[in-house]
Design a protein that fits this description.
Number of strands of chain A: 0
Shape of chain B: globular
Largest sheet of chain A: none
Distance between the termini of chain B: 54 Å
Distance between the termini of chain A: 26 Å
Number of helices of chain A: 9
Strand content of chain A: under 5%
Order of helices and strands of chain A: HHHHHHHHH
Oligomer: heterodimer
Mean pLDDT of chain B: 95
Mean pLDDT of chain A: 92
Structural class of chain A: mainly alpha
Largest sheet of chain B: none
Number of helices of chain B: 8
Structural class of chain B: mainly alpha
């Protein structure tokens, strides 16, 4: 993008161009929030709530099986702080979009292979299966391993992050080329 | 009390993820194609500020650290599977919840996929996965432990590296300057 000389910009535009970019300001605030979380109760993490939700369901539907499944027993009950964090994400997303000048699109096509709404829903569902399966295999996701993990200097967070971006970048480029 | 703190942290996180655009699967896909690096730079900034603040504040305040074990096969394999899903769907486990709050219909499909993925994992974990994923377990290893340096020193170094990288990298590498 060609830089516009400041002499032809209005005062507001000069301020906006000199100001820190949005990702930097919001990233710094998120860093403070993630540190505050560790000070208050523990590091942020989202993906463990999915199997705890399965556990809560199965304890109602098949209590014998749920009590014998070592993974569900290990993950524990649904009343953990993390469940409330996920509830906060839902409310936060709702409020932020309510008070946003533009509304989020109902559906976004994200790569050239998605030519219909049905294809988009299929990709979102398949992506959802893989991210949770992968996250549970690794014991954490973008928040638990990458944000909280690397914040705490953990080697596991660095390994997970390297894996995610290696296969994520490879797959994203492949999907874009393959669909053309 | 922990529940209330977690709810407020989640609320702030949801607002931040929505406002930076992380709940837009199209923007995630553009980041993974390296056409736009805003979300990657947002995450690196979060980690840089978080690690320096938490270890500095940790000199005075008690911290609830929780280091996850580095069982290499499971963590790396899980990361590789996660990356494919991240690129295919454009959501992560948190951003699909934020997206649902925004009223995105594809986020609902990602969330349902995640619940299905958790069910499959739960059903197969005991029999198939538990014996495999935990091999090559290095334990709760940190960079500070590997380097034999105080955590605060490593945090400041890591933070400086990440902040230098995000300041130096272009946000939209696809757009040619000039």
């Amino acid at each position: 993008m060609a830089a516009i000389p400041e002499s032809v910009m209005t005062a507001g535009e000069v301020r906006a161009a000199r100001a820190l970019p949005r990702w930097a300001v919001l990233g710094a605030v998120f860093g403070l929030v993630s540190a505050a979380s560790i000070a208050l109760w523990g590091p942020i993490g989202v993906s463990g709530t999915y199997p705890r939700f399965i556990g809560a369901l199965l304890r109602q539907l098949a209590p014998g099986y749920a009590g014998a499944n070592t993974y569900l027993v290990k993950m524990g009950g649904f009343a953990k702080p993390e469940t409330f964090l996920v509830l906060g994400l839902l409310i936060g997303g709702f409020l932020a979009s309510r008070f946003s000048p533009q509304r989020a699109p109902r559906v976004e096509f994200i790569h050239s292979g998605e030519t219909s709404t049905a294809a988009r829903y299929r990709d979102a569902f398949l992506g959802g299966v893989l991210i949770i399966f992968g996250a549970r295999l690794a014991g954490g996701c973008t928040s638990g391993h990458i944000i909280s993990g690397i914040t705490q200097l953990s080697v596991s967070g660095l390994i997970f992050g390297a894996g995610v971006f290696a296969s994520g970048i490879f797959t994203a480029r492949l999907l874009q080329k393959g669909g053309r | 009390m922990d529940q209330l703190s977690a709810l407020l942290v989640g609320l702030a996180m949801g607002v931040l993820l929505q406002r930076v655009g992380a709940s837009s699967p199209a923007l995630i896909a553009r980041n993974l194609r390296l056409e736009n690096l805003s979300i990657i730079k947002f995450m690196a900034t979060t980690i840089a500020v978080g690690t320096m603040v938490v270890y500095l504040a940790g000199l005075w305040l008690p911290m609830h650290f929780d280091i996850r074990p580095a069982y290499v096969l499971g963590v790396l394999g899980g990361g590789l599977v996660f990356g494919v899903g991240f690129a295919v769907g454009g959501f992560c486990p948190g951003t699909c919840v934020v997206g649902l709050g925004e009223g995105r219909k594809d986020a609902l499909f990602a969330l349902l996929g995640g619940i299905f993925g958790a069910l499959v994992f739960t059903l197969f974990f005991d029999a198939l996965l538990a014996p495999v994923v935990k091999v090559m377990d290095l334990g709760k290893l940190t960079l500070a432990g590997v380097l034999h340096l105080p955590a605060l020193v490593v945090a400041v170094l890591l933070g400086a590296v990440f902040l230098t990288a995000v300041a130096w990298l272009p946000t939209e590498p696809g757009r040619k300057a000039g």
